Structure formats: structure tokens, C-alpha cells
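Researcher: We're teaching a course module on how sequence relates to structure. For the next exercise, students receive a sequence and then see the predicted structure as C-alpha cells, so they can try to spot secondary structure elements on their own. Here is the exercise chain.
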Amino acid sequence: MAKIRVLTIDDSALMRQVLAELLSKDPAIEVIGSAPDPYVAREKIKALNPDVLTLDVEMPKMDGLTFLEKLMRGRPMPVIMVSSLTEAGCQTTLRALELGAVDFITKPKIDLREGMDNLADDLIAKVKGAATACIRRGTLGIRSEQRPTDGLEFGHDQDHGYDHRHRLFDRRHRGGQGGAASPATQYSSGPDHPAHAGAVHQNLG
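Model: And here is the predicted structure for the students to work with:
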């Protein structure tokens, strides 16, 4: 039987190492790579075609929720959130699940290695469960073997987790005022929204 191929995404080198060590203890799982931020993750997803991702929330260049949203729109696949911010019942966790994450693990806030050792069985079980999930474009639906190959594109213009299109939409709805968008504004402003008409947006290629 083929192994479950996992890509870990976390800005902490220690956490990437710990995840690889824990997941590799199960003979049914193979950690095929890791990434410190969503931009590196994008290239590795296209090159390695993993079955499951583990994804942190707080990362440089782009936060995990923004990446998750883009991923589910362009190249849906099973994702397990692994973050100190994804606690049971909290808004970050609910938003990640709404966007299409399959499940979550709460990263220990102290003594990371020992804390993750205690969560190893749970992590492995959730990765195995995620590998059988059926993921749809947008949130939940097309199966992993039906994923498109080149749908995951990011814009150059990034700032604190949302791109030029989000900021354009946000400014127009705030009368040109600055400030971060509300979650409803930030995540509902898709490329087909009228506010985006005529916007020039370059992609990473």
C-alpha cells in the first residue's frame, strides 16, 4: 500500500523537525518535505504533489488562513492545521475549518518537543483521516487525485496576510480609509467581485 505523503508548513525549523520525526514513526506515513512559508510551500506542492499538508497560522509573508483560502480555491487538498492559535472553539480554528481544513492540532505553548510527543498519536490519526477526505474547490469536494496542477498562484503585493485585491476591496468599502479588513470583508472578496474589475494583478510564476 502506498504511503501517505505529507508536506509540513511551519516557520519554525524546530517544529518542522519535530513534525517530521513524529509522523515518520508511523510506517504508513512519509514526510516528503517541509516549507517555512506559503511561497516555498507553493513550489513544493506543485513539485511533490503531497497527499496531506500540515499548516501553521502565524508565518512570514502570508498567514496560514490566507494561504488556506487560496489553496482551496486553486488546488484543494487535505489540510491539518497545527498552530498554537488553533484551539478548540476559538475563532481561528472555526475559520480554518470553514475555509476547508479537515482538522486541527493545538501546538503546545511551552516545551514544544515534549508537548508534541504527547500529541503524536492524535496527530498521526488525524493525518491518516485527512488522507481519505474528499476536498472540494472553495471548501470541501473534488477528490485529491482530481486536483488541478497549476491553480495555486499568489500575488506579489502582500501585506500582513492579504494581498492587493483584498486591500483594494477594503479601501473601496471604507471610503479609502486604511486598516485591516474584517474577516467577512477579507474572505468574501473573491476575484469575481465587482470591486476587482479592472485591477491588474501579477502572479508569481
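Model: If you want an answer key for the exercise: Residues 8 and 34 are 5 Å apart (CA to CA). Confidence is low (pLDDT under 50) at residues 139-150, 155-205.
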